[in-house]
Amino acid sequence: MGSFRLFPEAAFSVSQRGDALSAFLVAVSLCFTFLICALILYFGVRYRRGSPASRANPHGSDLLEVMCSAIPLALMMVMFVWGAAPSP
Questions:
Q1: CA dist., res. 39 & res. 32, Å (int)
Q2: 33-69 pLDDT, tens per residue?
Q3: Count of domains observed in the chain
Q4: Could you tell me the pTM of the whole model?
Q5: Is residue 37 part of a domain?
Q6: Is residue 54, in this structure, part of any structural domain at all?
Q7: Spatial separation of the C-alpha atoms in residues 52 and 18, rounded to whole Å
Q8: What is the rounded distance in angstroms from the CA atom of residue 73 to the CA atom of residue 65?
């Protein structure tokens, strides 16, 4: 049996760009998945029933709202431009 290779050689010259884009998409997806899961667990424990956390006066941050929109937008624009760029 031959040696197993997780990432075989590229069959075409443009497939290296596609492989890099795919790896970037997977990495971004995994980072956001772990971040969201960690935040769900953190806030689930922090604000569970019976905990002394104050929930009476919710206050928000405009900077936090903008950052939560700007960072994913910037990442999506990078992915779009990278995927839509013509092959050399």
A1: 10
A2: 999 999 999 988 887 877 777 767 777 788 989 999 9
A3: 1
A4: 0.72
A5: yes
A6: no
A7: 51
A8: 13
